[in-house]
Request: fold
Amino acid sequence: MIGLLMDGIFGYMIRGALAGPCAILGGICALFAICGCVKCMHCRLRDCACCKRFLRATGHDEFDDFELMMLVHEALFDRREEKKVTTVVRVKAGRHHVSTDPNSNGIFQQPLHITVEQGTETIVVDLLDNHDYVLASLVLNVVEDVLGPSVHRPEQVFNMRQKGKGARNPKVKLTMVIEKDHDEEKGLLVGVSSDVDNLVRMQLAKARGGGQTLSEMQVLQQACAGPLELFEGLGKTSNVWVSILGPPNARRWVLGIWSDKHDFDMKRHAIQEIDLLRIQSVQADPTRHHVFVLNYYDESRVRQACTFRRSDRARDVWVEIIRLLVQKVHDNRKARQEKSGGRQCHL
Reply:
């Protein structure tokens, strides 16, 4: 009897001694389990289709998944030294991120496509150096800054927050486009990528945005004007201004090359004129993604070529708009000839 009593007292003492540590250990395990569940719910809850639809239906999430095209024009900042700095622009939206190609003068003119998932609160645009060090950062609120505006201004300049010493007063010039089913120039280009099609339509919309009522030819004429670099041989280049002249201001449709925009605005003679009807082809250089070549015949029927490097827009935009202009000039000429021939037959 005494032995049983002693065993009971001894067991009670052991259980009492172990109760405290076990309770603490159990509490710690429960805490870790709860934190793990909360983390999973926070990060991957929308991976479940039912939960995703529920959050959208209840209004907790204000938008569905969408694709955003962000055209990165250029990064502007004051350098500490005169030497060029190779930079990259990176765009992050939740667990998705895309980056431009490296560039040493800050002019990218590159479209980036990124998926913005339901529930994503911010899009972060970072300016990086060639060592992936963040020089500056811009935070955009998805609802207010991206989905809020009915129309996004093209080439909008945003102030960035400086993060590193290599870039002072940082800014980035962006154009944001959310894909829509209806666009005025949809189907304008055949056989080109959706990126190029979007960029060309944006350039045409920019040319049309002056408030004037312009014909299709006038819009193309306005869109095909801007700065380029002209290769002169042995790797030497010069900055030039390119624009289109045509009736009634000129006898024929030509692509004119001026030393600068001032000479063009002052209506000085172009240093070179290329008849659009004599252009044989406009080709993108396959080895240099900023360069294109314009092949044409001169007045003596000798084949010539001009090589340009883009400055203010994507290379393929120049290529496609010049192609559209050349095709339009040929179509107009053919229509006049058919009309003239019809009149002669009628007479």
Remarks:
- The longest strand covers residues 66-78.
- Confidence is low (pLDDT under 50) at residues 37-42.
- The two ends are 138 Å apart (CA to CA).
- The helical segments are 2-44, 49-57, 142-147, 194-208, 216-223, 261-265, 315-346.
